[in-house]
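Q: What would this complex look like in 3D?
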Amino acid sequence: MGRSLAYSSCEKESSGSGTNAGGHAADQMTTRSRFEEGVRAGVGPGAATFALGLSFGAAASIAGWGTALTILFSMLAFSGSAQFALLTTLPTGNAGAAIASAALINARYVVMGIALNDSLRGSRLWRAVQAQVLVDASFVVAYRGAGLFDIVRMAGASVPQWLGWVAGTAVGVLTRPSSDLLHDTGADVIFPAFFLVLLMEEVRRSLRALLSALCGAVIAGAMLLVTEPGYALLAATAGALVGLLPEDPVGSGRDQASGRDEASGGDEASGRDEASGGDADGTPGSSA
Amino acid sequence: MRVALSMLAVTVANWVMKASGPLALGHRQLPRTARRIVALMAPTLLAGLIVVELGDPDGGDLNWTQIVGVVVAGAARLLKLPMLLAVLCGAAATAVLRLM
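A: Here is my prediction, written as structure tokens for the whole assembly.
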């Protein structure tokens, strides 16, 4: 199903126009199809997350964290960077410092949560609950242009990643695979490769997207020399300040479309999908 | 107990990080300028993630086999391969290089 139809339905849903039985069924169908689309998009990063979970589980087992506790931690926290940070820092010193380090490494979620807010519905509390499905890859997969996100799609994309993370942790903590095995199979390529193919689609949108990506890469690279990856990522989000620049001529068509979207509630991304026909594999590709 | 409490603290902190934006803003919409910044958050974050994934946090040399794999995945995508297949091509290329 085309995403434009899905989003039209989404807008109806939010404006309360789909109140009859037929409209309700259609809304449920499109919600379901958007969720399924998200699940398909999350399979690639889910595989990468499984590999990371294996490493985490094995390392936690060696550190003597215990099987059940480690798996429960992965189920509830669902945060590779914070969990790895705690695993690395807790044995070396003060627990408070270790917790602060692990928590702050995810400070980018504050920025991303603010970015999501316009796309969330309901009360503050319900919005906060919806934001819990946020993880890096899902944030990108859910982006639909004009500063808006498809939260249903984001939730769908997070499901395979959560399953991969928890399953990977469980297998890792129980079997303790050697890090050489993961290295030899090229598992460490999956995440950056996935991010690259998503980025290739993103930077086609406008010069500003390309410029902000370059700024983000340079900032992350520079910060990585002096700090942890989580902080480097947080600093990299400053690259998005390129959005303060005047609109670029190349992306002006898109930006004008975005302006219409903001006014009408339509979406830019759906137009992109209709033009490209979407991906054969159902992954976000041009729609991300 | 120390480990369990630390896990709990990190878990709760993670939930709070994700919830803080929506809790603070509620129904208020971002101003137009902020939306233009938000619109660029995805490509910026993606580029940062690639650098962080490829970089060595210990300041050591870059892993060239990993970089080749990522480039192969990008090239495969340019050749219109489906996303998942392109990513797997990249991983396979790195695995082959490491076997050699």
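A: To summarize the key features: The radius of gyration of chain A is 20 Å. Chain A is about 70% helix and 0% strand.
Q: Very helpful, thank you.
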